[in-house]
Write a structure and sequence with these properties.
The complex is a heterodimer. By secondary structure, chain A is of the alpha/beta class. Helices cover 39% and strands 21% of the residues of chain A. Chain B has 4 domains: 135 residues, MetI-like fold; 48 residues, no CATH class; 144 residues, 3-Layer(aba) Sandwich (D-Maltodextrin-Binding Protein, domain 2); 99 residues, Glycine betaine-binding periplasmic protein, domain 2 (D-Maltodextrin-Binding Protein, domain 2, 3-Layer(aba) Sandwich), CATH 3.40.190. Classes of the chains: A alpha/beta, B alpha/beta. At the A-B interface, helix 4 and helix 6 of A face helix 8, helix 9 and helix 13 of B. Chain B: Keywords: Cell membrane, Membrane, Transmembrane, Transmembrane helix, Transport.
């Protein structure tokens, strides 16, 4: 069973939201509704997130991604449709049960950190535990552990405003991790950080994820971030999810011109892997041949260029067990790095 | 447009409230009175310098040595100008009013911040409270709560509370919505979000509101003086009405010292009570200007500061100065103890014959074993208080004209004890050095000399209307002279100024008035009798009081004074100086042997 399921979620703001949903379903244009003062923020969003997956929702500002995220923990009630978390309908929970869910099972990391300026770093990290009602000593121990996990050991007694942006967001992350929630909602959590620090934080999140195996829904407007972090990516435009797939699916097979134009500036050589462009071996390849150059299925294309330059033969692509999976000819490699989507290159 | 009887409705509401809710008003009144008495007992109990020390220690704790020294100097100054008791009374009034105002304002502000409907409801009410002139609700407040501290406290609360509500609402509304959402996202219950996130973050703004509430409360002190609240207000109010510039200045400076002290202390509290404020202050201090002068920067830790204050307070308690007794009452001659300790409250307003007659009666009644007290009010307040029985007797009712309105309204609650002075007159007066002007008619053709103006008093005074509508046109002066409205004290100040410069000046005046014994003035006679016959001055008693104090009633009925008597009494009081009224009266009584026996005859032969 999927950890988190969104079924035909609509979120419409305005005076008569239900009416808005009905009209959208009947085919009324979103801009037409907005002119009347009704905003359809999320339109018919459906997706499933598996346990342990990082699910990225990517879209430009105003695409409805933050609103969608808030329907997942009930901060925004869907106007129509439902959200199932572990099979329970989040939107039908009583206020008290919803609060319990938020304090124990789902936690959140915010764009501008949302640290409480009147609490020390330790008290911020332990906030969720305080809401859970844990005694002070246990709360502080676990908060300190969470801080250590994000690399902030020794900063417990500091105040949020004494920390750099990156460190503040680590406190935000520690606060979310401390409650031991199994679902993490991250709302543009790294967008307010400098590029270098953002990269550090992405790396740290991936490292943590290897250990913790949380289920994470991550919102971003940065395609490179989406590609780096996401096991799967949902692309949103004007309130609708226009494509869901892995980074490579989206690069290789964009669902629409919009997605295609969106992904055209992505550094393909770093996102696409050997597996995504390899072809069935036309002939048996002798892996023991010293002339034969091998590459792993997960190797990004950028790292194939040097090996490819050393041999005229196609590169042999091997899996984790060292078995042959496919081959990549030099022309295939070059075409894949070109501007055109890979599919078309193949056809050519 | 038909005349809308808004005023009548307001009056109806007030009388309806008085009839049906007097129990509630009495309860409120009693609570406020006890609060005030308690606070005043604590603040006013210790000897002035000790209390100044306690207040300075508080300043030391909150802000450090320089503020403490300045505070001590300021309070010593208040004691030095003999305003200590009044200052502590005012401080108590401010403390009680501000505390009650905040107790109401903060929850109201929280409510308004959390509900748009509440905010929309509360706002117009606050607007009215802030802008309605205090005098408008002071008189109903007296009707509801009787004279003295309570209406002053109520008026102060009405005036000072709105800013507390507004600042609380603002403070909570301006908490970063993302923080509230974060609290929400972690499953915080709404009440807890309020207590643990919104209020702490709003605290600096709320404390700025507290500071403003206290400052506004202090600014109402003078107005409180007009309805009989003790304190600096009555000092200043009294000084103003008697053009006593020196005393007014002393009272004013005392108000300023209190204001600055309260501002600095509450400002510092704003920093100390919130975690955010402490952090800001700590950062500011590390980069402070006073680097290198550790002594100036030193601030005791809370424990040390608190123990300083407590220790001094214990010393104060230990020396037994708390609740010290008032002045010992004068011995009462044997056989003349008619009063047997019964209390008589004599009302007066800051008119000289009122002060003189009220204090003369106090001396007479004290000598006969009563406990008499003279309380000074604004006239409107005094007549209202007399009707309610807060005042037993009022010695300065000008009838049948000047105070006719009060008699019309409250006449059934009064017993008229008859006239004791005949006859007052209204007139225009000029200095005697202006030659050739002795009647109103003589003003004709000399308007240039007088600058074309007659210096008047309050625009609402009956005398002003009479002069403008009847007397000036009657003598054909309305074209040549402009009647300038000001105030009684303004008119007297103008007279003093021009008199000193020997400039011709014409002022609106009345007799009896001390100005006639202070300056050489000519009352302009009124050959056409346009001013009408003058009023007589009556003693009025509250009906119930008259029955309770039959001796006093009968003595007052037999009481008369002539213009020279009254003039010399007023002059004696004036000569004794402000604050020494009783001494002035004693000297005058000593110079007029037998006067007490005439006023208050004892025994059959009396």
């Amino acid at each position: 069973m999927s950890k988190l399921v969104a079924e035909h979620v609509f979120k419409v703001f305005g005076r008569r939201p239900k009416e808005g949903v009905r009209r959208i379903q009947a085919g009324t244009d979103r801009d037409e509704l907005r002119a009347e003062g009704t905003t359809a923020a999320v339109i018919d969003a459906s997706f499933e997130v598996q346990q342990g997956e990082i699910f990225v929702v990517m879209g430009l500002s105003g695409s409805g991604k933050s609103t969608l995220l808030r329907t997942l923990n009930g901060l925004a009630q869907p106007t129509s449709g439902r959200v199932l978390f572990d099979g329970r309908d989040v939107s039908s929970l009583a206020a008290k049960d919803l609060r319990h869910l938020r304090s124990h099972r789902i936690s959140m990391v915010f764009q501008h950190f949302a640290l409480f300026p009147h609490r020390s770093v330790l008290d911020n990290a332990g906030y969720g535990l305080e809401v859970q009602g844990l005694p002070r000593q246990e709360r502080e121990e676990r908060a300190a552990q969470a801080l250590e996990l994000v690399g902030l050991a020794g900063w417990e007694r500091s105040w949020p405003d004494e920390l750099s942006g990156g460190m503040q967001q680590r406190v935000g992350l520690a606060r979310a991790l401390a409650t031991d929630a199994d679902l993490l909602l991250m709302d543009e959590s790294f967008s307010a950080l400098d590029p270098l620090i953002r990269r550090d934080m992405q790396d740290q999140l991936l490292t943590l994820q290897q250990r913790l195996r949380k289920t994470i829904v991550f919102i971003t407007h940065d395609l490179n971030e989406a590609m780096r972090l996401g096991d799967r990516i949902a692309v949103m435009r004007d309130g609708r999810i226009v494509q869901i797939g892995t980074a490579q699916d989206i690069l290789v097979d964009p669902a629409s011109d919009y997605v295609a134009s969106f992904v055209q500036d992505v550094d393909r050589s770093r996102v696409l892997t050997a597996a995504s462009i390899m072809q069935k071996p036309p002939v048996a390849v002798d892996l023991s041949d010293p002339q034969c150059v091998t590459a792993h299925t997960d190797t990004p294309l950028a790292e194939l260029l040097t090996p490819a330059s050393r041999t005229r033969q196609p590169l042999a692509v091997v899996d984790d067990e060292g078995r042959l999976s496919g081959v990549i000819a030099r022309d295939t490699l070059l075409a894949a790095l070109g501007d055109q989507p890979v599919k078309e290159a193949h056809r050519a | 447009m038909p005349r809308i009887r808004l005023g009548n409705w307001a009056e109806d509401v007030v009388s309806w409230l008085t009839r049906h809710f007097s129990w509630l008003f009495d309860a409120v009144s009693s609570v406020v009175n006890h609060l005030y008495d308690g606070v005043e007992w604590v603040l006013g109990g210790p000897s002035p310098l000790l209390m100044a020390g306690i207040l300075a220690a508080l300043a030391f704790w909150m802000r450090g040595l320089p503020t403490a020294l300045a505070a001590f100097a300021g309070f010593a100054l208040i004691d030095g100008v003999a305003q200590w008791d009044q200052a502590m009374q005012s401080l108590s009034l401010v403390v009680v009013s501000a505390a009650v105002a905040l107790l109401l304002a903060v929850p109201l502000g929280v409510w308004a911040a959390r509900s748009r409907v509440a905010s929309a409801l509360v706002r117009p009410v606050l607007d009215v409270m802030q802008t309605l002139p205090a005098f408008v609700y002071l008189i109903p407040a007296i009707i509801f709560f009787s004279l003295g501290t309570v209406p002053a406290v109520i008026a102060t609360i009405v005036f000072a509370m709105p800013v507390g509500v507004r600042m609380t609402e603002l403070g909570i509304r301006q908490v970063d919505p993302e923080l509230v959402e974060a609290a929400d996202a972690f499953g915080t219950a709404p009440a807890r979000t309020l207590l643990r996130v919104q209020l702490p973050l709003a605290l600096p703004t709320i404390m700025a509101g507290v500071n403003q509430v206290i400052m506004l409360a202090l600014s109402m002190v003078v107005i409180g003086g007009m309805v009989g609240a003790e304190g600096l207000g009555s000092t200043v109010f009294g000084a103003i009405s008697q053009v006593d510039i020196g005393l007014g200045f002393e009272g004013g400076v005392s108000v300023v010292v209190l204001a600055v002290y309260l501002d600095r202390i509450t400002g510092a509290m704003g920093e100390q009570v919130s975690a955010l404020g402490r952090r800001t202050a700590a950062r500011a201090r590390t980069g402070g200007r006073l680097r290198g002068f550790a002594v100036l920067r030193y601030r005791p830790r809370p424990a040390v500061g608190l123990s300083c204050v407590v220790a001094l307070a214990l010393v104060a308690a230990g020396t037994g100065v708390f609740g010290g007794d008032g002045q010992p009452s004068a011995p009462v001659a044997a056989g003349s103890d008619v009063g047997k300790g019964r209390t008589v409250t004599i009302g007066s307003f800051n008119w000289d014959e009122s002060i003189a007659s009220a204090n003369l009666w106090k001396a007479a009644l004290d000598a006969r074993g009563f406990k008499a007290a003279v309380k000074t009010y604004d006239p409107g307040a005094a007549f209202t208080g007399l009707a309610r029985g807060d005042i037993d007797v009022l010695t300065d009712a000008w009838l049948p004209t000047t105070h006719a309105a009060y008699l019309k309204q409250y006449g059934k609650d009064y017993t008229d004890l008859g006239k004791w002075y005949e006859r007052t007159s209204l007139e225009v007066a000029v200095p005697s050095y202006v030659k050739g002007v002795t009647t109103m008619a003589d003003l004709k053709g000399r308007s240039k000399e007088f600058g074309g103006r007659i210096v008047g008093i309050e625009p609402g005074a009956g005398e002003m209307g009479l002069l403008k509508d009847k007397v000036l046109p009657g003598y054909g002066l309305d074209k040549d002279y402009r009647l300038v409205s000001s105030s009684t004290s303004g008119m007297l100040a103008e007279l003093a100024r021009d008199y000193a410069a020997r400039k011709p000046v014409a002022v609106v005046l009345w007799s009896p008035h001390w100005a006639y014994s202070t300056y050489h003035l000519t009352k302009l006679s009124d050959p056409k009798s346009l001013w009408g016959p003058g009023d007589s001055i009556h003693d009025l008693a509250n009906k119930a009081s008259a029955a309770r104090l039959p001796e006093v009633s009968s003595w007052m009925r037999g009481f008369h004074m002539t213009e020279p008597q009254l003039g010399s009494l007023e002059a004696a009081i004036q000569a004794a100086g402000q604050g020494n009224t009783a001494q002035g009266v004693r000297q005058w009584v000593a110079a007029h042997p037998g006067v007490l026996d005439t006023m208050a005859p004892v025994g059959a032969g009396g």
